[in-house]
Amino acid sequence: MLFPPVVTQNTACELCPRACHADRTTVKRGMCGNDYRMRIGRIMLHEWEEPCLSYGAGAGAVFFGGCPLGCVYCQNMELSQFGAGVYRTVEELTREMLLLQEKGAVCIDLVSATPFAYEVVSALEGAKKQGLSLPIVWNTGGYETLATLSMLDGLVDVYLPDLKTLSVARAKRYLHAADYPTVAKRAIAEMVRQTGALIFNEKGGLLRGTLVRHLVLPHGLRDTVRVLSHLAEYGETVIVSLMSQYTPCKHLSREDYPELASPLSERDYKAACRYAEELGIENLYTQEHSSASCAYIPEWEYPSSPFDLFLNMAEEAEKRQ
């Protein structure tokens, strides 16, 4: 079902650093793969986020479709790049967030919501007026503009960005975004400015603050050292989540990226953990090596119209050429 546009600000979209200027008030899609329809792949109680965000019943996660980045190893590629997800209105999103609160969610976890920032802001404002009181988490790849982050100031309590790489060459090869290191560093600095010092509740739940994730990749230890060295400069202002869960899933081209064709070695991950400890990073999450599995990927909903799925996949393929 096609819904009429809810907002008109996307006539020349600049919500992400791509600034593709697509007129997303029509059926024209931006570089993120989205038009004016808010696409959501799954709404669920999510128990696999960091403990401070998923204790108890879990985080109230909303997984949005499309993504400004084009990570070749993305575990959620069917949602981020291949058109999974169903179309929802702002009113539906408002109701779903309130329902997650009723089910016992400890936060609202908005995953890759950047292409729908206007709609999400509207839904959050509406839900808060109707009694939504949970911490709001902006779960992002870190590829954000300062203008979009300014829209979220005062609405978002917890920022959960990735800092995927600080290598321009690796950002260009793996993310299709050579400017990622500069953009992500600037964005995270703004997130920390907005949230300030970490605030927890009596159960250890994060009420306010910034938690930065870094996924250690095979043959990427040197890059991980740079990332950790940078994050250590924030001291106790941020939490660092050092992730071992990389696993090559079905959409990875093993011919084009042979260095990513095998899981991360336990030796390299332990070396990364040791370096984080040597840097004195106290607010640190680490993972068991067994976390590396595609089994943790949620099952996505799909468009009711096969044509929409085909169109998304065709346009994504064209964009990558």
Number of domains: 1
Number of strands: 10
Shape designation = globular
The fourth-level CATH homologous superfamily is Aldolase class I
Spans of at least 5 consecutive residues with low confidence? 1-8
Derived structural class: alpha/beta
Would you state the CATH class? Answer: Alpha Beta
Estimate the strand proportion: 15-25%
| Topology pattern, helix = H, strand = E | EHEHEHEHEHEHHEEHEHEH
Rg over alpha carbons: 19 Å
Mean pLDDT: 89
How would you characterize this protein structure?
This protein is an alpha/beta fold. The chain has one domain (40-313): Aldolase class I (TIM Barrel, Alpha-Beta Barrel). The chain is built from ten helices and ten strands. Strands 1, 2, 3, 4, 5, 6, 7, 8, 9 and 10 form a ten-stranded mixed β-sheet that branches. Helix 3 packs across helix 4 (117-129) and helix 8 runs parallel beside helix 9. The longest helix is centred in the middle third of the chain and has 16 residues, at 180-195. The radius of gyration is 19 Å and the shape is globular. It starts with 37 loop residues before the first strand and ends with a helix. Mean pLDDT is 89; it is low at 1-8.
What's the layout of helices and strands?
Layout: E1 38-46, H1 51-54, E2 59-64, H2 77-80, E3 86-88, H3 90-102, E4 108-111, H4 117-129, E5 136-140, H5 146-152, E6 158-161, H6 168-175, H7 180-195, E7 199-200, E8 206-215, H8 221-232, E9 238-243, H9 266-278, E10 284-285, H10 306-320
Parallel strand pairs: 2-4, 4-5, 5-6, 6-8, 8-9, 9-10
Antiparallel strand pairs: 1-2, 1-3, 7-8
Helix pairs in contact: 3-4, 8-9
